[in-house]
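Task card 7
Instruction: Convert sequence to structure tokens.
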Amino acid sequence: MPATKKITKDAIIDAAVDVLRDGGFSAINARSVAKKLGCSTQPIYLSFRSMDELKAALTQRVIAMHTQRVHAVLRAHEGSDSRYSSYGMGFVQFAAQEKQLFRWLYLEDNQFGQYQADVLQQEIIQTIVDELGYSEETARRFHQDMIYFSYGLAILANTGHLHLSDTALREAFRRECRALASVYGPPARLPAFAQKAQE
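Output:
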């Protein structure tokens, strides 16, 4: 008799991601994940002590996917755009392209272990320091204000109400950077897109 194929933790989390994408937060339960795997619920409870533990692992997987998406946007625009603007692009694109995953992390108020921070937050703060020359304290306040703007665009994108090309979206972030620079004072180092705006 052939040995029973072991279902790994990673396979269970992969299935949970698929269930989340298909049906949203309310669809996540042991039966739906088991159905996606084509097995009983037993392998799930052998790998995870509870559904809360699986949901916590799912949150970590979605954070990793979100981080990977933001890094991909950074690589795509490396050397041709503001690194800080590219972070915002990655955030909005993730919201638009992975609707249920974005909601799981940022909008669903009853999911287990709700994520409350930005991915790569410390790297983002350091980028503001490097690109604009602000102190770390000012960079944190600058970014907090940018978060309000970014979330608005991301939610519009997530709900299908934002219809901007990548070029128009990038320019929206550039305008917001210039607006915030007028609040926090002229940056010690002016990025190329801000210099062009003054010409």
